[in-house]
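Subject: sequence -> structure tokens, single chain

Hey, anyone have a minute? Need the predicted structure for the following. Not urgent.
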Amino acid sequence: MTNLLRNACVGFSTCACFLLASTGAWAQKAEAGTSSNSPVAIVYVSHPSSKSSGAPNNIVAWWANAQGKLTPVAGSPFAGNVIPMALNGKYLFGGSLDGSHIYSFSIASTGALKQVASLDDLSYLSGTCDQVMDLTLDHTGATLYSYAGWFGPGCASDATWQSFNIDKSNGSLSYLGNAGHNDMWGFPLSFIGNNVYAFEASGDDIYGFRRESNGMLAYATDTTYRPAGPNGETYNAQDAAADPTNHLAVLMEPNGSGDTQVGTYTASSTGSLSTTSNANNMPKSAVGAPYYSQMAPSGKLVAVAGQSGLQVFHYNGSAPATRYTGLLTTGYPVNQMYWDNDNHLYAISNLANKLYVFTITPTSYAEAPGSPYSIADPQGIIVLPKTKKP
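Reply:
Had a minute. Here:
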């Protein structure tokens, strides 16, 4: 089981690694700042509804203005017992706290959420230990993909990517099939610009998947080629984030000592990968063990989260990435983050009980007004941009 999988399970009822460890102030509403006539995004975060053991999760929502300052959405928090989330602008989809269901929520123009459909995912899974651990969408928002697997005590390792068609009229899901089973597959899944090939990096390999004409995700290829590490060591490929064209930023963690580095791969028209990355031209990261990465919509920046915090790199297509910021957060792990289309990066730290907001362009970066925001045990985050991609 990779570091990514070990740490991405944060918040699952069966993955108590962080749930029981978190302390600190419980959820507080974001400080309402000066209202903006042009909000740029809605930010949704799932977290426990109370301190009580076994309390269901809910979803807290904020409007973000052009400066990145957050104001609560009317009616927030919303009932939604979910952890991982994905959205397509009309609907938000959430994997249930126990990993058994996928819920569909309509998104009102006010940002409010209302559950409109539910799917029992266990009926499509063969393993009694399987559960939904991550969700993603293709670029068109027509198909939902669910990573389902289990790596716990007493359970055989297993993982699959499931495909679901989304009914545009009501948000309900219909099962298309799965991509097979492989206990080495991980998440998150990232589509390159052509919306045909998607990739994820887990340990030894970078795995490629092909989206068929009906939206079904099929296993396509993998590459075992990883650059030689420092002192002749090998790397573990821990996470992949695609730019808007055909490149992947891949986090490379040395098997021995050394810092995580950011490599670059290029996907061909058939989904095969190539790289010129090596130990000398891959920039080193200060995040420690890597947990997550996210490419900015422009493709010019890639954010890296890990055990020691959050850091951002310049991304240069097929050329090597370059170091940009130092650690933007320190002292606590950052578990997940998302960009909007207006240069804002939103990041959650489960152990710090915080939601951070940064404004980051290729030439400047700063923490946004009001950041960080207190929220107990944030477990999943997703962002709905309200402006066009750059």
